[in-house]
Design a protein that fits this description.
Blueprint (H helix, E strand, L loop, with lengths): L1 E4 L4 E4 L3 E2 L5 E2 L14 E5 H6 L29 E5 L3 E2 L5 E2 L3 E3 L8 E3 L4 E4 L4 E4 L3 E2 L5 E2 L4
Antiparallel strand pairs: 1-2, 3-4, 5-6, 7-8, 9-10, 11-12, 13-14
């Protein structure tokens, strides 16, 4: 995933690849200061797995790549991705998160971006509410409490 420069004796990696032989899939941005759009940390799949939280808010009991004989997790230390800072999302942490809320039109208690009643502008992190809906999370009907 790179080109060998015989004059300097080093590989010049294609975008998204790192390592002396361009053998790792890295985070977007190349240099560490630019990785993850400056809004996150570049971690290996193994490290990202340790950040996994289950539905009870507890660390997941599964440790990605902990079994070296598991062919399904061979990439634990070879593929890297972004763990975004709070308020940011996306594969490269470049998107600003919008407010979330419960969709009052369903029996579902889970939260949704803009309460399913608007569109998130990921450049500003603000919801653009559909007609008849108001609030920072678009969770209130216009004219209702």
């Amino acid at each position: 995933m790179g080109i060998c420069s015989r004059t300097i004796g080093q590989c010049q990696c294609k975008v998204g690849y790192v390592g002396a032989a361009c053998q790792f899939m890295g985070c977007i941005g190349g240099e560490s200061a630019n990785q993850c759009s400056g809004h996150g940390s570049c971690l290996s799949m193994r490290e990202l797995g340790l950040e996994n939280i289950d539905t009870d808010g507890l660390p997941s009991p599964f440790s990605y790549g902990s079994d070296p004989n598991d062919s399904a997790t061979w990439d634990a230390d070879r593929i890297f991705g972004c763990l975004c800072d709070e308020g940011f999302e996306g594969y490269d942490c470049s998107l600003k998160q919008c407010e979330v809320g419960v969709d009052i039109n369903t029996d579902d208690d889970s939260v949704h971006t803009c309460s399913n009643h608007g569109i998130c502008d990921y450049n500003t992190g603000k919801c653009a509410c559909f007609a008849g809906w108001v609030g920072t999370d678009c969770g209130n009907r216009r004219g209702h409490d």
